[in-house]
């Protein structure tokens, strides 16, 4: 990609904006300002129940995870926060971690608790945690979440993300209503333990690791619980947590209609999985989601600033840093394209029942090549024109392997 | 089926009840008391967009539809109500219709409105009805519903079922949030027009006849609207209106947990369709749904009497009356089996985390052959031991064809 | 779209081709040469089982259908053939129809038979046609297909497309193996009746209008039958005829690997439907399909010329001609983008296991804005720069309504 | 379950057989003779990518696995073979293992190879094995399979099951046709290395652990490869390896129609998973599958004896031995019920187009309580009347834990 070609592309792109009454600098500013958090577990190779293939040079501790995210931030200028997972990322020296993060320009996004695994705690989560029929286990799980909040407070985090794996594998195993009630009460205790400037982000997922029923399977159940918690509890949408064919962009709109959208976990999927790189399978869906997000914010349904953004994918056939560079780029493109939608005309089409033109308007935005815009925004922010090319040219993975070892393995999924 | 074998079967069945502390007469009484409404459109052959194959002798008007349901009631003793669809079933002489129904032991279940077709009304529903971007069309659709309520009042109905086909086929066509808001406001007007002893049953459906988005796609959206209407608005579950793999029994439990279950439209499906005979594809799912219903009522989550029951299926490869006989039998069996579940033991398994035994308890009930019980209940109520055999032996379809004609075609879907 | 902007866009686009060693004129020529047939039933408003909303001015007979396709050909330069459906399109005066088509530059693509409806033939297809348990019905259905071939011969068609709706709605209704065997034998008779320069295109579809089982549900079954027919029988892929999440592009590759791909029916779907405009829901999937098509042809797996192309979609919320303009444009774009894939580099990535770069290569092609290229090809071919804008500016639908009437209704689905 | 009640149940059951012209002893003999193999990996707790919960007392080596299967055989009398997985179950002392198995009445079913994990072999399977773009990796994977055959020969096994995890996670990663061709050639080498009295059982699976494409995703691809191998290569059906809504019973019929059904891996699933206990979710589907199996064998499509049977499920919330007891019971019930179908009447219904009666005939068999029959068959074979009750009464798991330890962990999935 020559500088000359980039300039010509930006120039032609900006010509297209005139008709739409959009200002290039405004667009650049919006794209530059859109930052997406990265979870600490995305920096190691993920795996499946059939095995895991190491990448080499994976970060061995929280410090090294911060290093990787710092690098990612420097190259891409699209991320400025990390989302930690407890117990995988308990900081040993809080001040040192805070200083390190601060130096790297990284803040601490929502904290993640873990009550889906046994890692030495007294009571097993085999039959559930916040929903467990056994009150002592529910209590243990609540206390774990309260500890996660405490750790987060020391780091400056402002939110707690709860993904609840609780559910059942066979009919009869769980009492649906009691499990839902127990979960609600457990979350009420957790909510009560959050500082007043925190929010609780409650995920839903229809299946896995439980394969007959999940306590919070859909947005409706998550919203039902959140309403019983308080206004700082909202629904988190993970793109990979839906039944086949679900219209996710509509769910986004429905949540914003209620001011109930906590934020996103970005990834992609083809078969109900949730770990493929964002935008790698269904880029048009991603664009349509951003159309709803922008529309909802413009209409005043829910404030843009109230929504959290995070990538949540960690597959095992890509270098994690390269994977994240691709994901950040795809998300930025989808956002940029959605900013190009001519909303005045679209609204008129909807009033006129002009289905054909409405489609044309959306596709006009989607078909526009926004790569020059995204690149320009990155360059203006001080990032690399082509982060992936830079990463490879500088042989960064090779250097990480040399430093951390071939078999260094990050904790997490 | 000899009388002798029936008696032996009842006898062996009742032996099984002893251990469970269940009384046979109590069971017979419960099964006898469980009545399921039949919609007027189920008495003609349905069809697909690819065509329709006539059955012959279909009821040509509301009077003949009542005749068919009266016959069904007499043979099966499992139905005592009809659910009318307006404009297909507008009674010409209300008193005559009431008298006829009364003589047949048939009452009028919830009324059904139709704003998914154009049938001569001034404004087209092509771009939606209660959700339409055009206020005049919304108004027309509201008024249609109010008229349906008026008709229902004259017949003694106590409810209005709203199935809303509104949605869109292409991204951009509809404004999700506005459509949801418009629908809510339209329904508020309709709700305000209902008598105080009526309830509003609000369906959801993820797709068809719109194939990109449906305004009320899932239980969560239906419940969201109902909460804004009032406590007599509840969510109607149609078994065929779910995305692939949905855990419907959990939705039932979640709705009862909120006292939000309006009732059921029974049918079955394999591929996301909604017109196969109830119990013909997934009988175990039907049983699990009844387990939740009975459990929810026993626990006091929602009163059994507050739930409405209706069949909604009209496929075109079966004689509709035979189809309904089979459906009523399958539903009765599922209900009867669910009554056999040993709930004390099941609860203990759930507390103990005894997944294996919990499964055994449910399957013990499901595997029990309850046909003798259902038959006994029918005989004691004055119905036919074997309604289908009777129907065929008496050559009833042949007689209907002779009377009504080979090409008589019922209105409806 | 100003001419100046178009020229600048073409110029910038062609700059991008240099690195890839692609010649602009070659590309233009490929895009211009890619022609997609239109079925006669796509020119009227389709509908669902819940109703149909008229468009107005629909073609009332075969002549008017040809007029509409002629118009479409003139504007878009992307179609040059019509696919007829019998009995909907039986020509009364063959020579006149041939002359008319010839004057419009339209040839006759594969013929379509209909054994899924009753339209006055002696025996009903209610329980199936080519698969029917009754030999007389199978014979009738075979003879219908032979008649369709005869009609096609008079028009110069060179193929017969068989979409078989046969199947069953309930377990037990059909004998799977007998139905498959009967179908194979019926098709052998039809195949034997085809001229030697014809091909038989055999569709598969997992469900609808039968909802428990379809005799030819998947590509494997279609290929199994084709192998028993002869080498001129191949598998037709309709994009909307797959189970949720199916990897269609892989099926295309697998069929080409066997030289077994007959061709395509283009449309799009979100929920297992098959009538949405091509490219309106999953444009990336459409691109990936073209990547396989081009790759398969380049590698010599199957000759490009042996593959047939047709649109098969007729939804009822768009003007059909506008819908087809959009579909032709989307297909052309997908094809053009797939031509941009750097196959040498991609192959190297596959050998190297470089998953990240392989994705980059595909996305680089997909993200490129090819609208200028497609427009340029159309202009050079003598078509309209913007067919949709032209169609609206010229008020063609209004003229058609004036001529044919508001309630003119085309035959077909 | 009292002996008296069992006798009465058997007696009433046998009365039902008279009308159908079925002999009780014949039935008992058929049920007794139906034996299902157990894989070595089903004896430990499985897990998900989110973790694994130990059962305690899991078998620590092949000898202990044989002990567990011997116990299962003794209690249930429904299994007499084990299916080994290499490298997890490499026997150290072949003769000792053969003797032990022989003493327990256990033979060696098909062998399973593993090329989906890295376990110390020189070249990684991260980018595939039999399909790998790298010939050296394909060769290594072929040789592994040949070694598995050698081990199997020493044990008296007569088959090799190949489940190929190969595929890709992202578009572009794999070359579909080359991967298919490479796989076919690799399997040809393996097939050539099999003794002449062995068969090759080739699985298919649409996704997992690869989430964009699997090299052998469906029965059609598996059959395509098998045809190129030879007549001793056939398609293995794993119930959990299908896209949503797939009609699996039809696939069974289609394979038998071609004499291409290798056998089964039994399990159940709700969301596309493949590890739930057989019959726990969709018991009617399991029954319908057995209807096809029995019908196909009776009609001479494919010999019953040519089909292999195995359980393949290992979830982690049940004691594996209890899980297997439940699975064996469910499979036996489904088989027994399918034997009750009145095939003469069913065939007549299919000829008559009597859909209603066809459904009645299948459901009559399914609704019949066959537990007494299955129990009687087990008792007559010398097994326990109630294996699960016996296992618990004898506190077998507690004894295994005492002997093997709380944290003993079986190898495998």
Structure in words:
The structure is a homotetramer of 413-residue chains. In chain A, α3 (62-76) packs across α10 and α6 crosses α7. The radius of gyration of chain A is 22 Å and the shape is globular. Chain A has a single domain, classed as Divalent-metal-dependent TIM barrel enzymes (TIM Barrel, Alpha-Beta Barrel), CATH 3.20.20. The mean pLDDT of chain A is 96. Chain A has helices at 3-20, 24-33, 62-76, 94-104, 135-155, 176-192, 219-229, 248-257, 283-298, 320-339, 343-352, 355-367, 371-380, 387-393, 396-404; strands spanning 38-39, 81-83, 107-108, 111-112, 159-162, 167-168, 199-203, 213-214, 233-238, 261-266, 308-311. The first copy, chain A, is 48% helix and 9% strand. In chain A, strands 4-5-7-9-10-11 form a 6-stranded parallel sheet. In chain A, strands 1-2-3 form a 3-stranded parallel sheet, with helices on one face.
Defining traits:
homotetramer; 413 residues; alpha/beta; TIM Barrel; globular
